[in-house]
Design a protein that fits this description.
- By secondary structure, the chain is mostly beta strands.
- It is 12% helix and 32% strand.
- The strands form 13 sheets. The protein has a nine-stranded mixed β-sheet with strand order 46-45-47-48-55-54-53-50-51. Strands 31-32-35-34-33-36-37 form a seven-stranded antiparallel β-sheet.
- Helix 4 (577-585) crosses helix 7.
- It is globular.
C-alpha cells in the first residue's frame, strides 16, 4: 500500500513575537454590521491568503516565503506567524492551492508542490510540477505564472501573463524580424510585406502566453484551454464546478477592447479580449464579455473568494496526521467554510481591488448565454489590497501591501492582514438601489429601518460623474496614470435630495431628487441606518448607481463630453524630446545601461515603454525616490553561495536547474539552486537615488518629455472613412488631365541621427509607395532636379536641407512654377540659410537657422480648414511627436493655413499651408522631422493629397498607393 504524506502541524520555535496593540483599522466599511480588526502579526507584503486543511491561515509572501498563522492565546485572533517555507527561490509567487499532498504555488517560471515530508510543521521539499513555457517579449520579468487552483480530480489550472502587456498584437516591423519569426509567419500562412517599414503581427492565438493552462494530473502535461488573457491574478472554481478568473485591465492601450479589470468565467476554447478583435491583425477573433468589469480604469482586480459554505474537503477534520492511502494524486483540501455576511450573500464572490484599495461583492447568475453579474462596493482601504479568504468561522481575511500603486514597497515592505467580522446581524443591509424616474431613487433593505432615517437625511447631495463611485472621499490611493488624472478632471456635479420617506413596510427608502442631469454614475451617502427600535445611533452606507444606459420617458439629459484624448499632452512636460533621449542614453545618467524604452537601451531593469500612460509627478517621484515603489518584475536579491560568494541583482529562473542573477550594470552570473546558501530580497531598489541632482530644471523636463511621450500609433483602419468624406468645395478643385502624373523626389544625405532627417530612406520608401498609384511615374534626384526633370515633371517633392540656394536655382523654380509646376516642401526643405525671404517668395514661408526656434516635442496638429481638398475628412486635431519651427519668415497674408501646431510656445504656429506662385501650386508641411511621422498613414494621406493637388490633379489621385 502506498503511503500519502500529509502536512503535520507541529509548531516549531520559529514563531514571531507578539507585536503591540493593533493600529486603528485602515478599512472603511461602506455597510453597517461589520467589525474590522488588524491581525497582530508582523509580516512583509503578502500576495495571497488561504486556509489550510486544519483551519489555520496560510500567507504567501511577496518575497517567496510562506507563513502559517496561529492563535496562541485563545482569543480567536491569530497572533503568531511561523515560517512554513523559505528554502528554494520562489520569485514573485502569485497563487497557492492546498491539496492532500501539500501546497501548490505558482511563481516565475514554475508551479511547485511544497511538502512537509518529516512532519515537523515546516515544508522541506519542492517538486516542480510544471515549467518551461515560452518567454515574454518584454522584460515584464518575474510576474509570470499566477493563480494556481485545482479541480475535484486534481488537475491544476493557472495563468500565464501575455507576451507583451503593452503590445498585445505583438506588432513588429518587417526589417526587425528574426529568421525564426519569419519561419513562424510562413508556417502560419501569414504574408510578409516587401516594405521593410511595414508591420506584421506575431500574436499566436493558439500560444501559451496570455492563456489559462491546465496541468493534467494523469498525463502530467500542459494544455492551453483559454486565451486572450492579459495579467491574470487568481483562479477558483465555484460550487457548480465552473472556473473563474480575475484579469487586470483587459485592454489598456488598444482601441475596441475593454480597458477595465475583469471577473471572467473561463470556458475551454474561448478568447477573453486581450488583444481584442482587429480588422487587420485578428479579423476572425470573437471575444467573451466579462461577467463583471470593474471601473473606473486602473483598479487592478486581484484575489477573490466564493462566499459558499461547505464542509471540510479532502481530509477529516482535526489536526493533520500521517495517513496511509492508495491515492497518489493530489486532490483539493480545505477546511470547512461558513458564510460571510447575511444569508442572502451566499453564492456571491468577494473580490479585492489592489490599486485603489477596494473590496467588492459580486452578484452573478448563470443564464443560457453565460454568467452575468454586478459589482457592489463594500469597503475602501488605504492600503494596496491583494487577496481575500473566508475562515472556517465565516470571517473575511484581507491581505494588503504598504506603499503606493502600482507596486508598493516591494517584497520586504511591511504588509498587513485585516479580519472583517459580521458582528451585528440585526443591522439593515441594502439589497437594491433603483432609479425609478429622473427625480426618484429607491433603496431597498433586507429588513425594516427606523423611520428617523428619512428625516435625518433631507437635503443630502448626490454626486455624479463618469468616474464617480461610492465613498469617493475615502479613496486614498491614486494610480499614477494619465488616464486617472483625466478621470479627476472629468466634469462632476451634485444634485440635491428634496424629500425622503419610507414605504409602509419601512423597508424601502424613497428619495426625491432634483432631476438627474446626465446619463452617468451617481454616488449616494445615507446616514443613520439602523433597525426599528435599535438603541445605537445608526450607521452610514455608501451606494452608487448607474444611469449611463437608462432611459425615462420625456427625460433628455445633457451630454457633457469628457476631456479630449488629443489634449493628453497638456499635463505633460514640454521639454525637448531629443535632449531627453540624449540624457537617457548618455554617460551622466546611464539610464540605457539598465533600462529599455521603445526598443532603445538594455533590458536588465524595467522596460519603461509604458511610462506614456503614467503622469509626470509619479514618474518624477519614482526617479527621485526609487524605493518608494518597487517593480515586482525587478526585485533585487542578494544571494550567498555555499562557497562564500555573494551576488546582487535581478533574479531569473533558467529552467529547473539554473538561476541567473543580473547586476544593475548588466553583468550576468549563472548559479545552481543547490549552491545557494541564503537568498534575501533587497529592501531597496537597485536604482540609485540622486540621479537628477546634477540636472537643471530644464533638463529634467527634457528627460520627462522623452520618457512620457511616444509617437502616435495610427494604422490604416480609419483611412477609409477619410477617403469617403465628400468635399463641399470639390467643384473648385482643378483636375488637370488623365495623362501620367510625373513626380520627382529630391533628397540628399542624412544629416541627423537615426530616424531623423533620413532623406535617403524617405526617397527609397516613397518612390516605392508612389509607384503603387496607377498612372504615376516617379523619378529621384540628388540635391537638385536635373534640367530634363524640370522640363517634364508635374510636381517636385523636396525633403532635405538645401544649403546651396542661389539665384540660378531660384530662376529654375520660377520658370517651373510659371508653367504650372507643383512644389511640395517637407520639414527642413523650408530652410534657407542666408536669404529666407527669397525662398518664402516661392513657397510661402521659410525658416532661417539664425532666427528660427524649434523643439522636438509632442503637440496637437489642429486643422483650421477641414474643407480643403487636402484636409477634407480629417479630424479636428491629431497628436504628433515631431519638430515644429517658429517663427517662419514671409507674408502670412499670402498663404492659406491648413493646420496649426497648438500652443508650442504660447501661440499657435502654422505647420501646413498652401501657396500660389505664378501658375504653380505649393503644399508645405513643417511636420516630417522623424521617420515615424513620414510612416504615419494619416500623414501619408495628407502628403499624397498635397502632391496631387500641387500637380493640379484630383486630390485622391495618389491614394491607391496606400492600399
Amino acid at each position: 500500500m502506498k503511503r500519502l504524506l500529509v502536512i503535520a502541524l507541529t509548531w516549531t520555535s520559529t514563531l514571531s513575537p507578539v507585536i503591540g496593540a493593533a493600529a486603528p483599522p485602515e478599512v472603511h466599511m461602506l455597510i453597517p454590521g461589520f467589525t474590522v480588526e488588524e491581525v497582530p502579526v508582523q509580516l512583509p507584503n503578502l500576495n495571497n491568503l488561504r486556509f489550510a486543511p486544519d483551519g489555520s491561515l496560510t500567507a504567501l509572501g511577496y518575497n517567496g516565503k510562506v507563513w502559517r498563522l496561529i492563535d496562541s492565546d485563545g482569543d480567536g485572533l491569530e497572533d503568531r506567524a511561523g515560517i512554513w517555507w523559505d528554502k528554494a527561490p520562489l520569485t514573485v509567487p502569485v497563487g497557492m492551492a492546498w491539496s492532500t499532498r501539500g501546497l501548490f504555488v505558482s511563481s516565475s517560471g514554475k508551479v511547485s508542490l511544497l511538502r512537509d515530508t518529516n512532519g515537523d510543521g515546516v515544508a522541506d521539499t519542492e517538486e516542480i510540477v510544471a515549467s518551461e513555457w515560452p518567454g515574454k517579449d518584454v522584460a515584464s520579468g518575474n510576474v509570470d505564472a499566477t493563480g494556481v487552483t485545482m479541480d475535484a480530480s486534481g488537475n491544476l489550472y493557472f495563468g500565464l501573463l501575455t507576451a507583451n502587456y503593452a503590445n498585445g498584437y505583438r506588432l513588429k516591423k518587417v526589417k526587425n524580424l528574426s529568421a525564426e519569426e519569419r519561419d513562424w509567419l510562413k508556417a502560419n500562412n501569414r504574408g510578409i510585406p516587401a516594405e521593410p517599414e511595414e508591420q506584421v503581427s506575431l500574436y499566436d492565438a493558439n500560444g501559451m502566453r496570455g492563456s489559462v493552462q491546465k496541468w493534467n494530473a494523469d498525463t502530467r502535461q500542459l494544455e492551453t484551454i483559454a486565451t486572450g488573457i492579459r495579467v491574470p491574478y487568481h483562479f477558483a472554481f465555484n460550487r457548480t464546478g465552473d472556473l473563474f478568473m480575475t484579469d487586470q485591465e483587459g485592454e489598456t492601450w488598444m482601441p475596441k477592447g475593454n480597458p477595465l479589470d475583469e471577473f471572467n468565467h473561463i470556458v475551454t476554447g474561448r478568447h477573453y479580449g486581450f488583444p481584442p478583435r482587429h480588422e487587420r491583425w485578428l479579423p476572425e477573433l470573437v471575444s467573451v464579455e466579462p461577467v463583471v468589469a470593474f471601473g473606473p480604469q486602473h483598479e487592478s482586480a486581484c484575489g477573490f473568494v466564493f462566499n459558499e459554505p461547505h464542509a471540510a474537503i479532502g481530509l477529516p477534520t482535526g489536526p493533520f496526521s500521517s495517513l496511509e492511502t492508495t491515492v497518489t494524486t493530489a486532490l483539493p483540501a480545505s477546511p470547512p467554510q461558513r458564510l460571510f455576511g447575511p444569508d442572502w450573500w451566499e453564492g456571491e464572490a468577494i473580490v479585492a481591488g489592489q490599486s485603489r484599495g477596494k473590496i467588492w461583492r459580486v452578484r452573478f447568475n448563470k443564464t443560457p448565454n453565460g454568467y452575468v453579474g454586478k459589482e457592489l462596493l463594500i469597503a475602501r482601504l488605504s492600503m494596496l489590497t491583494t487577496d481575500v479568504a473566508i475562515s472556517p468561522n465565516g470571517d473575511l481575511y484581507v491581505s494588503c501591501h504598504s506603499g503606493l500603486p502600482d507596486w508598493g514597497t516591494g517584497p520586504n515592505g511591511t504588509g498587513k492582514i485585516f479580519r472583517i467580522r459580521y458582528t451585528n446581524k440585526t443591522a439593515p443591509q441594502w439589497t437594491d438601489v433603483v432609479p425609478v424616474s429622473p427625480t426618484e431613487v429607491r433603496v431597498t433593505f433586507d429588513r425594516a429601518i427606523d423611520p428617523s432615517v428619512a428625516e435625518s437625511n433631507i437635503g443630502r447631495r448626490i454626486e455624479f460623474g463618469d468616474s464617480v463611485r461610492a465613498a469617493g472621499r475615502f479613496e486614498v490611493l491614486k494610480p499614477p496614470y494619465a488616464v486617472v488624472a483625466r478621470q479627476e478632471a472629468e466634469p462632476r456635479g451634485q444634485i440635491l435630495s428634496t424629500g425622503w420617506h419610507l414605504t409602509n413596510d419601512n423597508r424601502t427608502l424613497i428619495i426625491s431628487t432634483e432631476i438627474h442631469p446626465r446619463r452617468t454614475r451617481y454616488a449616494l451617502s445615507i446616514a443613520g441606518i439602523q433597525a426599528v427600535g435599535s438603541p445605537d445611533h445608526g450607521h452610514p452606507i455608501e451606494i452608487d448607481y448607474d444611469l449611463s444606459s437608462t432611459t425615462f420617458a420625456g427625460w433628455s439629459p445633457e451630454r457633457i463630453e469628457p476631456p479630449s484624448l488629443t489634449d493628453g499632452n497638456a499635463d505633460k512636460p514640454r521639454g525637448d524630446y531629443e535632449t531627453g533621449r540624449s540624457l537617457f542614453r548618455g554617460e551622466q545618467l546611464k539610464c540605457a545601461t539598465c533600462h529599455r524604452i521603445r526598443g532603445e537601451g538594455a533590458g536588465h531593469a524595467p522596460d519603461l515603454s509604458n511610462l506614456v500612460s503614467r503622469d509626470a509627478a509619479s514618474v518624477l517621484r519614482d526617479i527621485r525616490l526609487p524605493s518608494v515603489t518597487i517593480n515586482p518584475d525587478y526585485v533585487g536579491y542578494t544571494i550567498r553561495t555555499r562557497n562564500g560568494d555573494e551576488h546582487s541583482g535581478f533574479l531569473r529562473n533558467q529552467g529547473n536547474d539554473q538561476l541567473k542573477i543580473t547586476s544593475a550594470t548588466g553583468v550576468e552570473t549563472i548559479i545552481s539552486p543547490i549552491d545557494v546558501a541564503e537568498m534575501q530580497p533587497a529592501g531597496v531598489s537597485l536604482m540609485p537615488e540622486g540621479l537628477l541632482d546634477g540636472l537643471s530644471e530644464s533638463q529634467v523636463n527634457d528627460l520627462l518629455t522623452f520618457l512620457l511621450n511616444e509617437p502616435p500609433k495610427r494604422d490604416k483602419s480609419g483611412l477609409q472613412r477619410i477617403f469617403q468624406t465628400p468635399n463641399p468645395r470639390s467643384a473648385a478643385a482643378s483636375a488637370k488631365s488623365n495623362t501620367a502624373l510625373r513626380v520627382v523626389l529630391v533628397a540628399s544625405k542624412q544629416d541627423h541621427g537615426p530616424g531623423q532627417h533620413d532623406y535617403p530612406a524617405w526617397q527609397k520608401t516613397w518612390h516605392a509607395l508612389l509607384s503603387h498609384a496607377p498612372g504615376t511615374r516617379v523619378q529621384d534626384a540628388w540635391l537638385w532636379p536635373g534640367e530634363d526633370q524640370f522640363a517634364t515633371a508635374d510636381v517636385l517633392v523636396f525633403y532635405y536641407w538645401n544649403h546651396q540656394w542661389n539665384e540660378a536655382k531660384y530662376a529654375q523654380l520660377d520658370a517651373f512654377q510659371a508653367r504650372g509646376g507643383g512644389i511640395v516642401v517637407l520639414h527642413s526643405a523650408t530652410i534657407e540659410d542666408k536669404a529666407p525671404l527669397e525662398l518664402a517668395k516661392r513657397i510661402g514661408l521659410a525658416a532661417q537657422p539664425q532666427t528660427v526656434q524649434y523643439r522636438h516635442m509632442p503637440f496637437d496638429l489642429r486643422f483650421v480648414d477641414r474643407e480643403h481638398d487636402i484636409t477634407v475628412g480629417l479630424p479636428e486635431a491629431l497628436p504628433f511627436v515631431d519638430e515644429p519651427y517658429w517663427p517662419m519668415i514671409g507674408d502670412r497674408t499670402k498663404i492659406h493655413v491648413l493646420a496649426n501646431a497648438i500652443d508650442v510656445d504660447g501661440q499657435d504656429r502654422p505647420m501646413m499651408w498652401t501657396y500660389h506662385h505664378g501658375h504653380g501650386r505649393v503644399f508645405a508641411s513643417i511636420a516630417g522631422h522623424y521617420t515615424w511621422t513620414l510612416e504615419d498613414p494619416v500623414f501619408r494621406l495628407i502628403v499624397l493629397r498635397g502632391v496631387a493637388w500641387a500637380a493640379h490633379r484630383n486630390a485622391s489621385t495618389l491614394l491607391p498607393a496606400l492600399n
